Amino acid sequence: MRLRSALILPLLLVAAPALAAEKIEVTRFHTPETLARLGPGAVEVVASPGFDGASLETRAWLDAVARELAERGIAGGSDRAMRVAEVRLTRDVVEGSEASRPRSSVSIGVGSGGGWRRSGTSVGLGVGLGFPLGGTKDRVAVENELAVTIRDRTSGEPLWEGRSTLRTGKRAADSPETAARLAKALFAGFPGTSGETIEVK
Question: Which of 17, 147, 149, 181 has CB atoms 3.0–4.6 Å from 163's, for a disulfide?
């Protein structure tokens, strides 16, 4: 047992600084009109349609988003809340030389009639990544994207949208630290400048 602990601890110490060194890309969308309707108050945090809201992994991401909203005066609420924050996590698996190339994506935000549009092979919250954990010499990276859309519950209209993206190794993709960092970066300087992409360390 002592030998195993002695081997694991150095690995954790090496992995944590590497993850912390990666920059997070953050983009937010909103309009003056939707922000006026957002304001403080209760909002229910839920998984986006099609994702497993009951899984332990999903709960970790929902809780991370709820904590950041609470710190900004947007308190958690029940299904009676007039607004709902839909949380979506997608992971793009990038292999070989592509793993070292810059990220790229296309987005359409609040006021443009759409949500996020991405290309590539992705998996969502509560779904396995689907690549081998060993036995390959090729470099594998995982592009983790946390997206949150705060909607008016009655009309379904988006009031605020944002996404934060972090490229990690395959093991760090499931780390609770990844969830916390993406959520914190997403709501840094909330509501943020609409349409601007920033980098957060």
Answer: 147
